[in-house]
Amino acid sequence: MPKIDEIKKLANAPKKGTKEYQKPQAAVRIDDAVLRPQALVSDKTNAIVAWIIFALTLVVYITRSAHHELLG
């Protein structure tokens, strides 16, 4: 019968095929400027285009809504 010391030694022995623990390395920091959206046009131009699109959409919505009310 094996002795207690031998059993403890076998229980604590590293398993076959296992590697020793390696501490994970810190993640590489990425420059935030690369991920930020780039300005394609000036803020003033962007606002003008947004208002034009809004106005056209509103006109289409009103005309389609009036068209449906007439057909009823």
Present the secondary structure layout.
Layout: H1 4-12, H2 32-35, H3 43-71
Verbal overview:
The protein has 72 residues and is mainly alpha-helical. The protein has a domain at 42-72. Helix content is 58%, strand content 0%. The protein is built from three helices and no strands. It has helices at 4-12, 32-35, 43-71. The longest helix has 29 residues, at 43-71.
User: Strand portion, in percent?
Assistant: under 5%
Can you summarize the main beta sheet?
Answer: none
- The count of strands amounts to 0
User: What is the string of SSEs from the N terminus onward?
Assistant: HHH
Q: Give the helix/strand class.
A: mainly alpha
Contiguous helical run count? 3
What's the mean pLDDT score?
A: 81
**Which ranges are low-confidence, i.e. pLDDT below 50, for 5 or more consecutive residues?**
none
Q: Could you give the distance between the termini?
A: 97 Å
Question: What's the overall geometry?
Answer: elongated
**Roughly what percent helix?**
55-70%
Q: Which radius of gyration do the C-alpha atoms yield?
A: 35 Å
Brief sketch in words of this structure:
The chain has 72 residues and is mainly alpha-helical. The chain is built from 3 helices and no strands.
Give a quick set of tags describing it.
mainly alpha; single chain; 72 residues; 3 helices
